[in-house]
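Summary for the steering committee. One of the milestones for this cycle was to obtain a three-dimensional model of the protein with 2-phosphoglycolic acid bound, which we needed before selecting residues for the alanine scan. The sequence and ligand used are listed below.
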Amino acid sequence: MRVPLIAGNWKMNTTLREAVELTQKMLRDLDKIKNVDKVLCPPFISLAAIGELIKGTSIKLGAQNVYFEEKGAYTGEISPLMLADLCDFVIIGHSERRQYFNETGEIVNRKIIAALKVGLKPILCIGERLEENEAGRTEEIVTNQLNSSLTEISNITGLTIAYEPVWAIGTGRAATGRQANEAIGLIRHKISKLYGERVAQDLRILYGGSVTADNATEFMQQPEIDGALVGGASLKADQFVSIVRQTSELK
Ligand code: PGA
Protein backbone atom coordinates (compact mmCIF):
# COMPACT_ATOMS: atom_id res chain seq x y z
CA MET A 1 0.00 0.00 0.00
CA ARG A 2 1.25 3.42 -0.98
CA VAL A 3 0.93 6.14 1.67
CA PRO A 4 -0.64 9.17 -0.02
CA LEU A 5 1.31 12.41 -0.11
CA ILE A 6 0.09 15.99 -0.33
CA ALA A 7 2.75 18.61 -0.94
CA GLY A 8 2.16 22.35 -0.88
CA ASN A 9 4.35 24.21 -3.37
CA TRP A 10 4.28 27.82 -2.22
CA LYS A 11 6.38 28.91 -5.20
CA MET A 12 7.79 32.48 -4.91
CA ASN A 13 5.20 33.58 -2.37
CA THR A 14 5.38 34.58 1.31
CA THR A 15 7.94 36.62 3.16
CA LEU A 16 9.55 34.94 6.13
CA ARG A 17 6.89 36.42 8.41
CA GLU A 18 4.03 35.36 6.15
CA ALA A 19 5.47 31.88 5.83
CA VAL A 20 5.61 31.50 9.60
CA GLU A 21 2.03 32.80 9.94
CA LEU A 22 0.71 30.47 7.26
CA THR A 23 2.38 27.50 8.92
CA GLN A 24 1.02 28.45 12.33
CA LYS A 25 -2.49 28.65 10.89
CA MET A 26 -2.52 25.07 9.72
CA LEU A 27 -0.03 23.37 11.98
CA ARG A 28 -2.38 21.87 14.53
CA ASP A 29 -5.04 20.70 12.06
CA LEU A 30 -2.51 19.18 9.67
CA ASP A 31 -0.64 17.41 12.43
CA LYS A 32 -3.80 15.58 13.50
CA ILE A 33 -4.56 14.09 10.09
CA LYS A 34 -3.24 10.55 9.86
CA ASN A 35 -2.25 8.25 7.00
CA VAL A 36 -1.13 11.05 4.70
CA ASP A 37 2.37 12.43 4.26
CA LYS A 38 2.05 16.21 4.54
CA VAL A 39 4.83 18.26 3.03
CA LEU A 40 5.26 22.04 3.05
CA CYS A 41 7.56 23.52 0.39
CA PRO A 42 8.13 27.18 1.29
CA PRO A 43 10.81 29.40 -0.30
CA PHE A 44 14.41 28.57 0.68
CA ILE A 45 14.75 31.50 3.07
CA SER A 46 11.90 30.21 5.24
CA LEU A 47 12.99 26.58 5.46
CA ALA A 48 14.95 26.88 8.70
CA ALA A 49 12.24 28.81 10.56
CA ILE A 50 9.48 26.47 9.45
CA GLY A 51 11.67 23.50 10.25
CA GLU A 52 11.73 24.74 13.85
CA LEU A 53 7.95 25.28 13.92
CA ILE A 54 7.12 21.77 12.72
CA LYS A 55 9.66 19.99 14.88
CA GLY A 56 8.00 17.12 16.72
CA THR A 57 4.93 17.13 14.44
CA SER A 58 4.01 14.76 11.61
CA ILE A 59 4.53 17.51 9.02
CA LYS A 60 7.51 17.34 6.70
CA LEU A 61 9.47 19.96 4.84
CA GLY A 62 10.50 20.19 1.20
CA ALA A 63 12.49 22.61 -0.94
CA GLN A 64 11.34 23.83 -4.35
CA ASN A 65 14.64 23.37 -6.15
CA VAL A 66 18.27 22.36 -5.65
CA TYR A 67 21.56 22.67 -7.52
CA PHE A 68 23.45 19.51 -8.48
CA GLU A 69 26.91 20.43 -7.16
CA GLU A 70 27.70 19.86 -3.48
CA LYS A 71 29.64 23.08 -2.91
CA GLY A 72 31.86 25.64 -4.54
CA ALA A 73 31.81 28.78 -6.63
CA TYR A 74 28.18 28.78 -7.75
CA THR A 75 26.95 32.15 -6.55
CA GLY A 76 23.34 32.11 -5.45
CA GLU A 77 22.79 28.36 -5.64
CA ILE A 78 21.71 26.00 -2.85
CA SER A 79 23.30 22.56 -2.62
CA PRO A 80 21.80 19.17 -1.76
CA LEU A 81 24.06 18.97 1.29
CA MET A 82 22.63 22.22 2.65
CA LEU A 83 19.09 21.00 2.14
CA ALA A 84 19.66 17.52 3.53
CA ASP A 85 20.12 19.10 6.99
CA LEU A 86 16.85 21.01 6.73
CA CYS A 87 14.30 18.98 4.82
CA ASP A 88 13.21 15.57 3.59
CA PHE A 89 11.88 16.38 0.13
CA VAL A 90 12.86 18.51 -2.85
CA ILE A 91 10.79 19.39 -5.92
CA ILE A 92 12.84 18.88 -9.08
CA GLY A 93 12.04 19.76 -12.69
CA HIS A 94 8.92 21.82 -12.08
CA SER A 95 7.57 23.11 -15.39
CA GLU A 96 8.16 26.71 -14.29
CA ARG A 97 11.85 25.92 -13.90
CA ARG A 98 11.92 24.21 -17.27
CA GLN A 99 10.14 27.17 -18.86
CA TYR A 100 11.73 30.21 -17.18
CA PHE A 101 15.13 28.86 -16.16
CA ASN A 102 15.89 26.61 -19.10
CA GLU A 103 16.11 23.41 -17.10
CA THR A 104 16.71 20.58 -19.50
CA GLY A 105 16.19 16.88 -18.98
CA GLU A 106 19.93 16.54 -18.42
CA ILE A 107 19.93 19.15 -15.65
CA VAL A 108 16.90 17.53 -14.03
CA ASN A 109 18.69 14.19 -14.17
CA ARG A 110 21.81 15.58 -12.48
CA LYS A 111 19.69 17.18 -9.76
CA ILE A 112 17.87 13.94 -9.02
CA ILE A 113 21.12 12.01 -8.80
CA ALA A 114 22.57 14.67 -6.47
CA ALA A 115 19.48 14.71 -4.26
CA LEU A 116 19.25 10.92 -3.93
CA LYS A 117 22.95 10.76 -3.06
CA VAL A 118 22.42 12.78 0.13
CA GLY A 119 19.14 11.10 1.07
CA LEU A 120 16.79 13.85 -0.11
CA LYS A 121 13.53 12.57 -1.59
CA PRO A 122 12.96 14.13 -5.00
CA ILE A 123 9.49 14.99 -6.26
CA LEU A 124 10.09 14.83 -10.00
CA CYS A 125 7.62 16.89 -12.04
CA ILE A 126 6.70 15.90 -15.57
CA GLY A 127 3.83 16.79 -17.87
CA GLU A 128 2.92 17.88 -21.37
CA ARG A 129 2.06 21.36 -22.66
CA LEU A 130 -1.27 22.33 -24.12
CA GLU A 131 -0.24 22.02 -27.76
CA GLU A 132 1.34 18.64 -27.05
CA ASN A 133 -1.82 17.50 -25.32
CA GLU A 134 -3.98 18.65 -28.19
CA ALA A 135 -1.72 16.87 -30.67
CA GLY A 136 -2.19 13.61 -28.73
CA ARG A 137 1.48 13.55 -27.71
CA THR A 138 1.08 13.15 -23.94
CA GLU A 139 2.50 9.63 -23.85
CA GLU A 140 5.49 10.54 -25.99
CA ILE A 141 6.30 13.63 -23.93
CA VAL A 142 6.06 12.02 -20.50
CA THR A 143 8.01 9.00 -21.72
CA ASN A 144 10.82 11.24 -22.98
CA GLN A 145 10.80 13.21 -19.74
CA LEU A 146 10.99 10.03 -17.68
CA ASN A 147 13.80 8.60 -19.78
CA SER A 148 15.91 11.74 -19.63
CA SER A 149 15.24 12.47 -15.95
CA LEU A 150 16.08 8.96 -14.83
CA THR A 151 19.13 8.28 -17.03
CA GLU A 152 21.70 6.16 -15.20
CA ILE A 153 19.63 5.95 -12.03
CA SER A 154 19.33 2.31 -11.11
CA ASN A 155 17.60 2.74 -7.75
CA ILE A 156 14.64 5.12 -7.40
CA THR A 157 13.87 4.40 -3.75
CA GLY A 158 12.71 7.68 -2.22
CA LEU A 159 11.50 9.14 -5.51
CA THR A 160 8.00 10.54 -5.99
CA ILE A 161 6.69 11.60 -9.40
CA ALA A 162 4.20 14.42 -9.92
CA TYR A 163 2.25 14.38 -13.15
CA GLU A 164 1.53 18.04 -13.84
CA PRO A 165 0.09 18.86 -17.24
CA VAL A 166 1.46 22.34 -17.95
CA TRP A 167 -1.90 23.58 -19.22
CA ALA A 168 -3.46 22.84 -15.83
CA ILE A 169 -0.90 24.62 -13.65
CA GLY A 170 -2.12 27.88 -12.18
CA THR A 171 -4.86 28.12 -14.81
CA GLY A 172 -7.89 26.98 -12.86
CA ARG A 173 -8.33 24.44 -15.63
CA ALA A 174 -7.56 21.17 -13.87
CA ALA A 175 -7.43 17.87 -15.71
CA THR A 176 -10.38 15.60 -15.04
CA GLY A 177 -9.88 12.81 -12.54
CA ARG A 178 -10.13 10.34 -15.39
CA GLN A 179 -7.54 12.11 -17.54
CA ALA A 180 -5.10 12.34 -14.66
CA ASN A 181 -5.68 8.71 -13.67
CA GLU A 182 -5.03 7.55 -17.21
CA ALA A 183 -1.78 9.55 -17.58
CA ILE A 184 -0.56 8.36 -14.20
CA GLY A 185 -1.38 4.75 -15.06
CA LEU A 186 0.72 5.20 -18.16
CA ILE A 187 3.61 6.65 -16.17
CA ARG A 188 3.43 3.72 -13.76
CA HIS A 189 3.53 1.34 -16.71
CA LYS A 190 6.65 3.07 -18.07
CA ILE A 191 8.28 2.81 -14.65
CA SER A 192 7.47 -0.90 -14.52
CA LYS A 193 9.28 -1.35 -17.83
CA LEU A 194 12.31 0.54 -16.52
CA TYR A 195 12.45 -0.78 -12.95
CA GLY A 196 10.07 -3.73 -12.71
CA GLU A 197 6.49 -4.16 -11.54
CA ARG A 198 7.27 -4.17 -7.83
CA VAL A 199 9.04 -0.82 -7.92
CA ALA A 200 6.27 0.65 -10.06
CA GLN A 201 3.61 -0.50 -7.61
CA ASP A 202 5.49 1.03 -4.69
CA LEU A 203 6.13 4.37 -6.41
CA ARG A 204 3.98 7.33 -5.41
CA ILE A 205 2.66 9.33 -8.35
CA LEU A 206 0.85 12.58 -7.62
CA TYR A 207 -1.37 14.78 -9.72
CA GLY A 208 -0.72 18.53 -9.86
CA GLY A 209 -2.45 21.40 -11.64
CA SER A 210 -5.22 23.57 -10.18
CA VAL A 211 -6.05 21.17 -7.35
CA THR A 212 -8.42 22.84 -4.87
CA ALA A 213 -10.55 21.82 -1.91
CA ASP A 214 -13.46 21.62 -4.37
CA ASN A 215 -11.96 19.15 -6.83
CA ALA A 216 -9.62 17.18 -4.54
CA THR A 217 -12.14 14.39 -4.02
CA GLU A 218 -12.38 13.76 -7.75
CA PHE A 219 -8.63 13.12 -7.90
CA MET A 220 -8.30 11.15 -4.69
CA GLN A 221 -11.03 8.73 -5.77
CA GLN A 222 -8.84 7.58 -8.64
CA PRO A 223 -6.89 4.38 -7.98
CA GLU A 224 -3.64 5.44 -9.67
CA ILE A 225 -3.40 8.86 -8.00
CA ASP A 226 -1.41 8.83 -4.76
CA GLY A 227 -1.83 12.45 -3.75
CA ALA A 228 -1.29 15.94 -5.06
CA LEU A 229 1.23 18.69 -5.58
CA VAL A 230 -0.76 21.79 -4.74
CA GLY A 231 0.25 25.31 -5.75
CA GLY A 232 -2.22 28.17 -5.31
CA ALA A 233 -4.51 26.37 -2.87
CA SER A 234 -1.58 25.55 -0.57
CA LEU A 235 -1.30 29.25 0.29
CA LYS A 236 -4.71 29.15 1.94
CA ALA A 237 -4.60 27.27 5.23
CA ASP A 238 -8.22 26.09 5.20
CA GLN A 239 -8.02 24.91 1.58
CA PHE A 240 -4.82 22.98 2.13
CA VAL A 241 -6.05 21.34 5.32
CA SER A 242 -9.25 20.36 3.53
CA ILE A 243 -7.34 18.75 0.65
CA VAL A 244 -5.24 16.75 3.10
CA ARG A 245 -8.34 15.74 5.07
CA GLN A 246 -10.20 14.56 1.97
CA THR A 247 -7.15 12.55 0.97
CA SER A 248 -6.97 10.83 4.33
CA GLU A 249 -10.67 9.94 4.09
CA LEU A 250 -10.48 8.55 0.57
CA LYS A 251 -7.15 6.74 0.47
P1 PGA B 1 -1.40 25.10 -9.02
O1 PGA B 1 0.17 24.71 -9.13
O2 PGA B 1 -2.00 24.20 -7.99
O3 PGA B 1 -1.40 26.54 -8.62
O4 PGA B 1 -1.98 24.86 -10.37
C1 PGA B 1 0.56 23.38 -9.06
C2 PGA B 1 2.06 23.29 -9.20
O5 PGA B 1 2.64 24.11 -9.91
O6 PGA B 1 2.70 22.42 -8.60
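Key point for the committee: Residues 177-195 form the longest helix (19 residues).
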